[in-house]
Amino acid sequence: MTYHTEIWFMAYTWANNVADYEEAVSILTLGLKINPSSHLLTFALAEIFEIQDKYEDVHKIFTRLLSNLRSHLEESGKSRSSSQTSLRSNKPQDAVELEDSERQKEYNLAWIVYMRFVMRVEGLKALQSVLHRVRFDRWVTWGTYEASGQLAQVSSWESDHLFPNRHPSATALMAYHGGGDKEVASRIFEDGMIPFGRVIEYVLQYLDFLISVNDKNNAQALFERAVQVLGLKQARPLWECWSKYQYQCGDIETILEHVKRLEERFPSGIVSF
């Protein structure tokens, strides 16, 4: 029973509801000692510390959570590459890959919620410092760079409980929506192009961002660069996105030139607008 985080959370909720705040913190602290990789208990304790302005404590518990989750990922990677037999190796390959994928999602979620805290409390400069660590973390996925403008404006607690299956952002669009700094947001997106420049979903998010802030020149440059790197089939969503933008915002000469390019590349008219 001690390893069921939901029971610890229920006990914390009861103590918190009866205004026994010291007991509530004690319950979460003990629960995390037994379940050090629990997102639920970490986020709840982080929320309490943030309300109490104990920001250093928030940094510490997120650092500890990330370290524990990273260790799990490293161990998982070693066991997959090892030829030694184990209980894990007896699992079906699909099950192993799904388990690893879920662990990586959990790890990235922890980074995202942590960065939201940093942005909320310490601002854009502090967020950039955290992002420097993210850039050199091999377990970080492209989803941690890109963002949903909607979820970027939702608090970490709301997003974790109301949208548990979505992959929100705490990076580029957080920098823009939270700090209003288009240049910093663009640099974050551009940094993400180094590892994720061939991931169509990421490139689309970057292009959408540039279009949304009316950065026409960089949007054009990104589109031209990306379609050269990606194959025609993979780049189709980019062509569709850029075509919609051209039809809505381009002048007649630009539109006609773009239509000519489309006809050359998609003679069967497979691009939809």
Automatic annotation (TrEMBL):
Q: Which UniProt keywords apply?
A: Cytoplasm, mRNA processing, Nucleus, Repeat
What's a Gene Ontology MF term here? mRNA binding
Q: What residue spans carry the Low complexity bias annotation?
A: 79-89
Q: Which domain of life is it from?
A: Eukaryota
- Locations listed in the record: Nucleus; Cytoplasm
**GO BP: any one term:** co-transcriptional mRNA 3'-end processing, cleavage and polyadenylation pathway
Cellular component per GO, a single term: nucleus
Give positions of region: Disordered. Answer: 76-99
Suppressor of forked domain location is 1-152, 170-268
- Cite the SMART domains for this sequence: HAT (SM00386)
What Gene3D superfamilies does its record include? 1.25.40.1040
- The residue range of the signal peptide is none
What is this protein's function per UniProt? Component of the cleavage factor IA (CFIA) complex, which is involved in the endonucleolytic cleavage during polyadenylation-dependent pre-mRNA 3'-end formation.
Put simply, this protein is called mRNA 3'-end-processing protein RNA14
Q: Which organism does this record belong to? A: Gymnopilus dilepis
